[in-house]
Design goal:
By secondary structure, the chain is of the alpha+beta class. Helix content is 46%, strand content 18%. It has a domain at 85-95 and 119-159 and 346-443. The protein has 13 helices and 16 strands. Strands 5-4-6-7 form a four-stranded antiparallel sheet. Strands 11-10-12-13 form a four-stranded antiparallel sheet. Strand 14 and strand 15 (327-329) form a beta hairpin. The protein is globular, with a radius of gyration of 29 Å.
Length: 508
């Protein structure tokens, strides 16, 4: 019990540190640019709320706060409304100094003097643009570094999942239309797709359409087109190609000592190719075939060191604690074959390009949707803060390098989204500065204050809505995964470990 709690606490700490690193590098970019260009920096904070630690150095207060999911750099000269307010207060005070009106004795005097207003030098618009841009640029720099680190690490699991079809459930609409294992899906609604993630995205972007057109290359090289009805009866409420999973390798991660698999000669690292002559498309397919055969002896062909070996194994019945009936087991643990969109390409520039393009695809669906209902369909699939944290947590548990890849993707997302032309974001500061350069006058401070406050309220409201929706979705996913795991525990062979991600993609 205690060990489990400590393990969770350790993973949570890693998540906090990684997320804080993304925020730190963003704010540090602003900080360095501000210092370089001579701006006043009041504070540099990692996190919000009460300070755990703080220290003032050369007029700048550095602090680390309790709520680590965020941070800020206080730059009074970067805010057009704040800058004008400071100058206005100073001007009023100067006028009163030049034209003093001394009150009568005892009248208008205060026991405490108001703190003197600062007069900060005005900063050129081009400098404000550089400071605003430096934050997103810092995220891009970190993303590039992480991408090249992953490129240089051989043990980083890079798994490009292309659009070859793995298992097609025989009771699915796709099977009835003619889609089969080994087919390659080239286009969805006329748009080329290169990865399973691309295919998933294009089906969501079908909008209100109940069907999608799939251009397919068959195993014999012929090309056909299928019009397949999409499924919306799933836990995430998205339009999906039901009953179809991606072609993925089925690798053995561990062989239990004394198990039928060990007696048959299975080894860690073996890739399962077929069972009794039927090709294995992916891990869940392997589990399905073994369960289907029950206790009957089966011949499993595996690939080891570039050679194919045929291993004869007979599953054994075993009683599992908590289950009513014993079940057949062979005693192998399967490697996690979960396709991760942030770990698809070994080439760093190719992966970074995909990270950025995925964000632009979502923005395009909002700004210029190609189909009716596309904007709404895509909006339903956008994850908020809770989803991001949960995904990062799962990545940390899965692999250190997977977590680095997820952090790289977060950095690209932060960089692009922060450059959107909204007043509360870095892109908003850039727009105000560009307005000043083009018109040779500053935007009216009241206008800036109003639009900034309005967008701040809208952004806070959006975040609260996304958090609420994330909690509901994660609760549904947790229940769904528990049900799937319970079902697999009842059906799967000996110790064959899998998870919800190893199920057909349409079941997620």
């Amino acid at each position: 019990m205690l060990a489990g709690i400590l393990e969770v606490a350790f993973y949570v700490l890693i998540v906090v540190l990684l997320f804080s690193l993304a925020i730190f590098i963003h704010e540090f970019g602003h900080f360095l640019a501000a210092r370089w260009l001579g701006l006043t920096v009041d504070a540099f904070s990692i996190g919000f709320g009460p300070a755990i630690w703080k220290k003032t150095i050369n007029g700048t207060e550095y602090k680390i706060c309790w709520i680590l999911f965020g941070g800020f750099v206080a730059l009074p000269q970067l805010d057009p409304s704040g800058m004008n307010q400071i100058q206005g207060d100073y001007s009023d005070k100067r006028e009163k100094t030049e034209n003093p009106e001394k009150p009568a004795d005892g009248e208008g005097e205060s026991s405490e003097e108001a703190p003197p207003e600062r007069m900060l030098p005005e900063i050129a618009a081009w400098k404000r643009i550089i400071v605003a841009f430096a934050g997103p640029f810092g995220n891009v720099v970190l993303a590039v570094v992480l991408a090249f680190v992953l490129y240089a690490v051989p043990s980083a699991r890079i798994a490009l999942v292309d659009t070859r079809v793995g298992m097609v459930e025989t009771n699915s609409v796709a099977y009835a239309e003619g889609l089969r294992s080994g087919d390659r899906i080239d286009k969805v609604n006329g748009t080329p797709v290169h990865t399973w993630s691309d295919l998933f995205t294009r089906t969501i972007q079908a909008g209100d359409n109940e069907t999608a057109t799939f251009s397919v290359t068959k195993m014999d090289g012929s090309q056909v087109t299928y019009e397949i009805a999409l499924d919306t009866n799933n836990v995430v409420g998205a339009k999906l190609l039901a009953g179809v999973s991606a072609m993925q390798p089925c690798r053995v991660a561990e062989v239990e000592a004394g198990s039928p698999a060990a007696a048959a000669g299975f080894r860690k690292g073996d890739t399962v190719l077929s069972i009794d002559g039927e090709p294995v498309c992916e891990p869940y397919h392997f589990i399905t075939l073994v369960v289907k055969n029950g206790e009957k002896p089966v011949t499993i062909v595996v690939k080891r060191d570039g050679k194919e070996l045929a291993l004869d194994v007979t599953p054994a019945m075993k009683q599992i604690e908590g289950e009513e009936k014993p079940r057949a087991m062979i005693g192998v643990h399967l490697a996690d074959a979960t396709p991760r969109m942030w770990m698809m390409y070994r080439d760093p520039w190719q992966q970074l390009s995909w990270d950025a393009q995925s964000v632009f695809n979502v923005l395009r669906s909002f700004v210029a949707p190609k189909r009716k209902g596309e904007r709404k369909a895509v909006a339903k699939q956008i994850g908020g803060p809770v989803t991001i944290v949960v995904s990062l947590y799962k990545s940390v548990k899965g692999s250190f390098w997977d977590a680095w890849g997820f952090l790289r993707m977060i950095c690209i997302n932060l960089a692009i989204l922060n450059l959107l032309p909204l007043p509360v974001l870095d892109g908003g500061h850039i727009c105000f500065a560009l307005f000043e350069i083009i018109t040779r006058r500053k935007p009216h401070p009241k206008f800036v204050a109003v639009v900034t406050n309005v967008f701040a309220i809208l952004l806070i409201g959006l975040m609260l809505f996304l958090i609420f929706r994330d909690v509901v979705l994660q609760t549904k996913l947790s229940r769904h995964e528990s049900q799937q795991m319970q079902q697999l525990e009842e059906e799967k062979p000996a110790g064959s470990e899998t998870n919800a991600a190893a199920l057909p993609a349409t079941d997620k």
